Amino acid sequence: MSNNSLLMKVSALICALIGLGCAPILIVMAEQEISPYATIFNRLIIGTVIFLLWNSCQQFLKTDSTKSNKPAIAALGLLDMTLLTISGLAFAGSLILWAWSLTQTSVANATLLDNMVPLFTTLGAWILFQETFSSQFLLGLGVAILGVIIIGTEDLQLAGGFMGDGAALGSAVLVSTNILIVGRLRKRFDTAWIMLRTSLIGSVFTLMILCCLHESPFPHTLLGWVTVILLAVAAQVLGQGLLTYCLEVFSVSLVSTCLLSVPVISAVLAMAVFNEQLTWLNWCAFGIVLMGISLSILAPPQKEQKEFTVASSPT
Question: Among 14-23, 32-41, 150-159, which stretch is predicted with the lowest mean pLDDT?
């Protein structure tokens, strides 16, 4: 891979992390008007529309046939459909569990447990795909997670809220599942193609939840619509979309480790937008997280992983 291509992928990853870092701010604003589940639905359904337009433009310009060797829709097999469905449900489920956990436990607990994604992703890559990791990468991962733990220590609650804690941990498992599957699919399918289908599956699933709860799915003011549109663009299109784009080059373990920077970005943005105060311990923890991520990024390349093939007949 050329230096220019690598620089583009690194820039895309940074933009993805910033987009995801904006999500908590926009979620707080959206929840002034609609429920957490409706907020998730709007993020997914608006993202679906944007990815549909993106995918349609790609097909119109014939970029799939001229610039990509990835299979067309006609080559989609049963296992591909199964993986896409699991990915969409896992992603939507992680957002729903996260939203519910915030009503059952402290924000610190939920944030701490939800940020255990790199542990599950690295473990899953090792078990499922026989990936191996250098000692420097694992050290960086451990340092970054230590920083996240320090961030949550000031408000950490050890008593009560066990159902909420379990939901937050379950959210981390589902996020890891989604990243692992998308990392495999990204080697065969384009970003817009994957994101369109996973966003659509997730939005349908979330709409079913809203129907069961008899909640209104859409905002009813202009400010509410602007907020959910910004949420979809920042978190779903730029954040999740560019993250999927980067998974063609970067390992799922490295990407999930970089996700530990999202709470840091969110905290700095909250300080600017909501005038939230950060203590010296917060700043020290942020430095530890960034140091750990840097160690992981600069670690020697891992050994060649086991090839993942999808051998199923076209539908």
Answer: 150-159
